[in-house]
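step=encode ok
step=design start
structure_in=
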């Protein structure tokens, strides 16, 4: 039985850190989607997906990331993903997501990556 899905939210400076936990699939993707929409609506477009507790992602879960990346980049922000378990990272890489998103080892590395690319004025 999969763990129930949840998303913790935190901030570090101007970064929104979203930490999905459990299974991100067709049943739970709408919750993750709402969480990202809330961040964008609040003017936060520098988003970290800290996925160290994400056990599984389906195409529906991956679709949430793809559904927002253009809008967020148009606003001068980005989504960077860290902490992927090997089996989850493999799904991202297999589908070419490593060409679209920064897949970073851990949270400190993501913070450094964002520091290297300051927010663009829109």
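sequence_out=
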């Amino acid at each position: 039985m999969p763990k129930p899905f949840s998303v913790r939210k935190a901030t570090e400076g101007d970064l929104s850190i979203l930490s999905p936990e459990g299974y991100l699939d067709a049943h739970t993707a709408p919750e993750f989607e709402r969480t990202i929409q809330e961040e964008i609506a609040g003017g936060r477009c520098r988003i970290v997906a800290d996925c160290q507790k994400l056990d599984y992602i389906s195409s529906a879960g991956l679709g949430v990331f793809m559904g927002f990346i253009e809008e967020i980049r148009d606003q001068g922000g980005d989504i960077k993903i860290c902490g992927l378990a090997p089996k989850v990272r493999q799904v991202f890489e297999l589908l070419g997501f490593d060409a679209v998103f920064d897949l970073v080892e851990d949270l400190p590395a993501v913070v450094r990556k964002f520091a290297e690319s300051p927010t663009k004025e829109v």
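step=design ok
step=annotate ok -> The longest strand covers residues 15-24.
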